[in-house]
Design goal:
mainly alpha; 77% helix; 135 residues; 8 helices; elongated
Length: 135
């Protein structure tokens, strides 16, 4: 009808949006970057004094958050962003308090792997499970 879409249920709209992208992978990668950023306690004056090593402690988790958001909003390029995300995650082991005291490191690795393994045309698991049960 003239291309006008009726407003629907926001919850079902979100589920529909989430079903067409590697949602959990991107979310975990973004949360990992945020967690690592929150564990950084040095002020910018100290970071600038330390040089490139101190700046990398803030740069890598910021890029992790960016990769996580790009996975969510541009799922066509998920392979590149997930590979970049795992490399950034592994880099935080050296630059950011053992990758945010291992929590951010594990979240980033799991999120990158989930995004890398996501298939765009795969039907939801619940439907496949129910179909197998009826057969």
């Amino acid at each position: 009808m003239n291309g006008i879409r009726k407003p629907g249920n926001p919850r079902s709209d979100f589920r529909q949006w989430r079903a067409h992208r590697p949602f959990w992978g991107g979310l975990l990668l973004a949360l990992a970057g945020a967690e690592i950023l929150l564990t950084e306690k040095a002020s910018m004056k100290v970071v600038m004094h330390m040089g490139a090593q101190g700046l990398a402690g803030y740069l890598l988790p910021t890029l992790m958050v960016l990769c996580g958001l790009l996975i969510l909003f541009n799922p066509a390029q998920r392979l590149f962003y997930s590979i970049l995300g795992i490399l950034l995650t592994l880099g935080t082991w050296l630059t950011s308090n053992l990758g945010g005291f291992l929590v951010g490191l594990l979240l980033g690795a799991v999120g990158s792997c989930l995004a890398f393994g996501w298939l765009p045309d795969q039907e939801p698991r619940r439907r496949r499970f129910l179909r197998r049960g009826h057969a």
